[in-house]
C-alpha cells in the first residue's frame, strides 16, 4: 500500500506531501528498547525525513544527520524509496528528556545527491528540540523553499509538509497553513484510504508513492 500522497493546491500556491510512516517506524525501531518519549522523538524524525525526501525526487538519494549532546547521533537515509535509520546505542538507555539531547553544539545536516550526480550538503545549528520546527528552520536557512512541517496531532508516524511556491500569494499561504494545521487532527485518526478526502477541498492529487 502506498504511504505517500503528493498534492497541489487548488490555487496553485503550494505543494503538499502527506506521509504515513507507521510501518517504517515499526521496522526500523524494532530493536529500540528506550523510553516512550525517545521513541516518539525517533518516530517524528522518521516522519519528517520521509516528508522532505518525498517532496524531492524519489530517485534522489537523501541523508539526514543529527549530531546531539552526550555524543549521541542519529543518521537517516532514503535511497531508491528505502528508508533506514541508525542511532547511537545510548538512546536505548537515555532517561532524560528530549530537550537534554540538544545543546549549543548540536547540528542538523542534510545531504542530497550522490557521487555520480554531485553532492549537496546543508548544515544548520540544531538548538531547537522540536523536530518539526527544526526541519522548517533548515529549509529557511538552506537553498530549499521554506516549508512547514505539521505532525498529525499526537500521532508521530503521520505528518504533512507544506511547501509554498516562489511568488505565492502570502494571504493564500497563511490561510492554507491554518487549514492544514486544523486538518492535522483529522489526519491523526482517519483511515489512510480516506485521507485524500480530507484534503480534496484544498488540493488535487499529483501522485501516490511508497517509501518503505
UniProtKB/TrEMBL annotation:
Gene3D superfamilies: Hsp33 domain (3.55.30.10). Coiled coil: none annotated. One of its GO terms (molecular function) is unfolded protein binding. It comes from Faecalicatena contorta. This is Hsp33 protein. One of its GO terms (biological process) is protein folding. GO terms for cellular component: cytoplasm. It comes from the Bacteria. It holds the Pfam family HSP33.
Amino acid at each position: 500500500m502506498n504511504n505517500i500522497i503528493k498534492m497541489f493546491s487548488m490555487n496553485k500556491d503550494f505543494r503538499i506531501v502527506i506521509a504515513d510512516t507507521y510501518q517504517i517506524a515499526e521496522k526500523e525501531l524494532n530493536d529500540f528498547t528506550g523510553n516512550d518519549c525517545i521513541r516518539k522523538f525517533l518516530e517524528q524524525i522518521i516522519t519528517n525525513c520521509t516528508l522532505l525526501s518525498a517532496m524531492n525526487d524519489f530517485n534522489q538519494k537523501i541523508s539526514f544527520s543529527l549530531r546531539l549532546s552526550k555524543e549521541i547521533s542519529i543518521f537517516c537515509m532514503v535511497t531508491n524509496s528505502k528508508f533506514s535509520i541508525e542511532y547511537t546505542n545510548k538512546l536505548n538507555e537515555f532517561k532524560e528528556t528530549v530537550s537534554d539531547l540538544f545543546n549549543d553544539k548540536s547540528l542538523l545536516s542534510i545531504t542530497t545527491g550522490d557521487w555520480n550526480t554531485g553532492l549537496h550538503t546543508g548544515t544548520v545549528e540544531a538548538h531547537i528540540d522540536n523536530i518539526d520546527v527544526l526541519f522548517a528552520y533548515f529549509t529557511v536557512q538552506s537553498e530549499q523553499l521554506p516549508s512547514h512541517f505539521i505532525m498529525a496531532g499526537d500521532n508521530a508516524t503521520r505528518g504533512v509538509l507544506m511547501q509554498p511556491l516562489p511568488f505565492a500569494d502570502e494571504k493564500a499561504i497563511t490561510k492554507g497553513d491554518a487549514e492544514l494545521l486544523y486538518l492535522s487532527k483529522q489526519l491523526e485518526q482517519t483511515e489512510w484510504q480516506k485521507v485524500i478526502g480530507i484534503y480534496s477541498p484544498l488540493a488535487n492529487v499529483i501522485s501516490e508513492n511508497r517509501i518503505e
